[in-house]
Amino acid sequence: MEKVIIVGSGPSGLLLAHYLLRRGNRYQVEIYERLGDPRLAAPSNTRSFPISLSTRGKNALRKIDGLLEAVEAKGAKMQSSILHQPKGKQSLLSFKTPLIAIDRIRLTNALLSELIEKYDSSQFNIHFDCQCTQVDLKARQVKFQKQDSAEEFAVDCDLLIGADGARSAVRNSFLNAGRFELEQKYFRDDYKSLYLPKDKNETELQPDCIHVWVSNSDSRIIAVPQPDGSWSGTIIFERDSDEILGLTTVDRAREFFDRNFPEASKLMPNEEIEALLERPIASVLTIRCNRYHYEDWVLIMGDAAHGVSPSLGQGCNAALEDAAILDALLDEYEDNLAEALPEFTARRLADARALWELSDNAFPSSKLLFMEFLLRRAVAKTMNKFFPQWFPLLPSDLLRDTTIPYAEVLKLNRGWVSKVKKANGVLNV
Ligand SMILES: Cc1cc2nc3c(=O)[nH]c(=O)nc-3n(C[C@H](O)[C@H](O)[C@H](O)COP(=O)(O)OP(=O)(O)OC[C@H]3O[C@@H](n4cnc5c(N)ncnc54)[C@H](O)[C@@H]3O)c2cc1C
Q: Is ligand 1 within 6 A of the CB of residue 32?
């Protein structure tokens, strides 16, 4: 059996473990995760956020027996989204294909529980509280530090997967390996996780729907229902926003929510506001690099390879698709890693670059251009059936309903994306 080390138990690492273990007795998989066991933590005590899984992510899950169903059972099917505007006006957007909305921690718990149920310790193990600190590319050795005791240890393997997110330690080892280019950029907005308990008064919030509240102060709340009737969400705001940084007491925060998000504020008890003030502000680091593999034994995937802004809700979908793509390459090259790993870079690079471009420039910041966006979307929806080559669907619609490669989606929408990029660039100066 070949020994595989996966660093990181996020969605991409866990799904890849399923794919590798499904290949019979060929691979023995060990996952090392920096944090503790997520199954022992209440979702509201962790920094999690809701993730929407569209056709691409669902397809990658569906290829493993029972996995899509296990994830669906922990999430909720979303048929539409409602945009709540500051003056109370609501706009409904119905989806052709329903999304699965699921809190990140519930998603990883579902993937992990299925692994533990299916495979015994001779095939699969997971080690929590173990942080990868260094990869010695020449010695083919991975170094870890135990979080509780600071004890250090090294492990050898045949295949190392860096599924350790945007701040990947595995990817950092490539920096000394020559001709590796890396671009890191913070997304302009930061966020905090938000939890709304089950609404005892049964307000009129539609349950099978993603709710987005926008304020006049450039912040927004996104909330999705959980199977237990509670709501999981995020408040997203401009980095270093004085207004958000100034929320130091429950009274100030209550006043802020009443003023900007009156409907959501009604669903927030004081305990949640207190917990929200304690939660750290998180930022999103986006990643672009020119190679995902090192020789025949290291591969980075998911956010470690191509972290993007969450605007289009595609980061996790792309991360799950990575696992399915590697599996297909292992089939194609009969598990020959020396061929499959370079081919992963070759096949994925253009799509990952297109995803970065699309995620940054799919939605215009200017109000005028946003009106054009709504108009274009409506026209494309009607005319696309008759003249698909002249009226392509906009990226947000194509990405939700299809698995068309990201590079193709960008090609179809090149004119619009360039226009948004130019306009957003001017506004961001
Ligand atoms: C607010 C927000 C909303 C989002 N919404 C969506 C959405 O709607 N749809 C969508 O598709 N995507 C969404 N995303 C993006 C999505 O969350 C990520 O793309 C996805 O989680 C990437 O999965 P991953 O497994 O590659 O990395 P991660 O989820 O980042 O997991 C990496 C894991 O590695 C561990 N780790 C890190 N460093 C080390 C180390 N040195 N040693 C050991 N372990 C380590 C981490 O603890 C973590 O468990 C959103 C992101 C944010 C921030």
A: yes
CA distance 266 to 359: 32
CA atoms of 429 and 425, how far apart (whole Å):
6
Domain range summary for the chain, segments of one domain joined by +: 2-77+98-184+286-358, 186-283, 363-428
Phi first, then psi: what are they for 249, rounded to 5°? -130, 160
For the domain made up of 186-283, give the CATH fold: D-Amino Acid Oxidase; Chain A, domain 2 (3.30.9)
User: Using a 6 Å cutoff on CB, does residue 12 contact ligand 1?
Assistant: yes
Tens of each residue's pLDDT in the chain, 429 residues? 999 999 999 999 999 999 999 999 999 999 999 999 988 876 555 668 899 999 999 999 999 999 999 999 999 999 999 988 888 888 888 898 999 999 999 999 999 999 999 999 999 999 999 999 999 999 999 999 999 888 999 999 999 999 999 999 999 999 988 889 999 999 989 999 998 887 665 566 788 899 999 988 778 999 998 888 888 899 999 888 888 888 889 999 999 999 999 888 988 999 999 999 999 899 999 999 999 999 999 999 999 999 999 999 999 999 999 999 999 999 999 999 999 999 999 999 999 999 999 999 878 878 788 889 889 988 998 999 899 888 999 999 999 999 999 999 999 999 999 999 998 775 443
Nearest to 33 by CA among 152, 179, 131: 131
Looking from the CA of residue 314, the nearest atom of ligand 1 is: 11
For 2-77+98-184+286-358, the fitting CATH number among 3.30.420.10, 3.40.50.300, 3.50.50.60, 3.40.50.2000 is 3.50.50.60
On the question of a common fold for 2-77+98-184+286-358 and 186-283, the answer reads: no
Write down the ipTM of this complex: 0.99
Beta strand pairing call for 282-289 and 231-238: unpaired
Chain-centre distance for alpha carbon 307? 8
Report whether residue 169 contacts ligand 1, using a CB cutoff of 6 Å. yes
Under DSSP, is residue 123 helix (H, G, I), strand (E, B) or coil? coil
- Cβ-proximal residues to 122 (8 Å cutoff; 6+ apart), any chain: 28
Cβ of 35 below 6 Å from ligand 1 = yes
CB–CB of 133/152 below 8 Å?
Answer: yes
Residue with the smallest CA separation from ligand 1 atom 35 is 8
Which ranges constitute the DSSP H helices of 75-166? 104-118
Centroid of ligand 1 to alpha carbon of 275 (angstroms): 22
Distance 10 CA to ligand 1 centre (A): 6
The answer to whether the CB of 103 is under 6 A from ligand 1 is no
